[in-house]
Each structure stands twice: as C-alpha cells, then as structure tokens.
Amino acid sequence: MVSYILNLAAFYRSFRPNSFPINLQIYYACIINFCIFGRHSSKGYMKEKTVDYILRSTWMNVVKMYNEEAGKKGSTMATGFALISIDPEEGTASTALGPKMGMEATSLSRTLKSMEQKGLIERRPNPDDGRGVLIYLTPFGKEMRDFSKGVVLGFDNAVRQNVSEKDLETFRKVAEKINELINSKKIFTPD
Description:
The protein is mostly helical. The protein folds into 2 domains: 2-45; 51-183, Winged helix-like DNA-binding domain superfamily/Winged helix DNA-binding domain (Arc Repressor Mutant, subunit A, Orthogonal Bundle), CATH 1.10.10. The chain has 8 helices and 5 strands. The protein has helices at residues 2-15, 22-37, 51-71, 77-85, 94-101, 105-117, 139-162, 165-183; strands at 40-41, 44-45, 92-93, 121-126, 129-137. A hairpin with a 2-residue loop joins strand 1 and strand 2 (44-45). It is globular, with a radius of gyration of 22 Å.
C-alpha cells in the first residue's frame, strides 16, 4: 500500500512538478486514495462508508449545489448565507454575525468586504456601542437575500418531497447526537 501511495504521489507530481513538497504530495495522494477506494481494513477495502465520509461527501455536494445556484447571480454560498443571517430591517452587529454563521473572523471579514464592494451591504456605526458596527442590507442586498432564501427553501422542499417525515426525524436525531458527542468532548479525550 505504501508503494501505491508513493506511486500516486509521483503521478500527481508529474503534472505539477515542484509545486508542493513531497510530504504534501503524499498527503494529497492519501486523500485521493481514500476518496477513490475508501478506508482499508485488514481484509481489504471497507464495504461500508464511514459516518465521516457520508457527512463530508454530502456537505460537499450541498456546497457545490448552492455555489452553482448562487453563481447564476454572480454570488457564492458564503455570501448567500451571510445575506440570510443579516436582519433585513434592524441590521445585525458585525460581532454577532460570525458566531451566528459559524465563520472565523478573517473569513467573515473577507466576505463582508466583498459584499460591500458589490453593493449588497453597508456598514453603519452602532448607536448602542461607539466601537461597534451594524451591517445593513441595501435594496440590492435585500433582493439577493430573497433569492438566497428561495434557494435554501427550494432545497428544503425538494428534500421533504423525497424523504419521509420519519426519515427526516431520524436524520435530525442522528445529527443532534453527533453534535452532542462532539460538543461534550465524548469522542476524543483532551490531552
């Protein structure tokens, strides 16, 4: 298996010589191998996909789908999610937006800067906090928010039409349990 990974890394390197260090090439080769063949067991390839693989591949498909739809209007999924997260009437404090969206400050800052340049939002001083900033949607931002909301609801409706309520409830319970396990640190013990 190790020789296979090294051969895969060499194959990758042949397309992009010296663009990545060898350890990064091996890392990418392992990812490619995992994506193509799945995880290994002592008796060969695992027949059943891991929970991690199912979550990751499903989310990657959702992101791709949202970005394709957003691209029709010259937007992105991150921008659409930000638009939906901003209160269309009262605005939203920039400090509250990151946690609401689950985004790091640097990523959020780039997204907001891009949105401001496209005329989707405007920043105004927060009257309750002299150092704070409120993010407001422009009329164009409200229009794009409605589009983004329609995309999300369209996906939700398509899933609901094709998945039984019982299966959706099971899905919600499993997702809640996974989040509970992660948040309570029950999977890996801290060092």
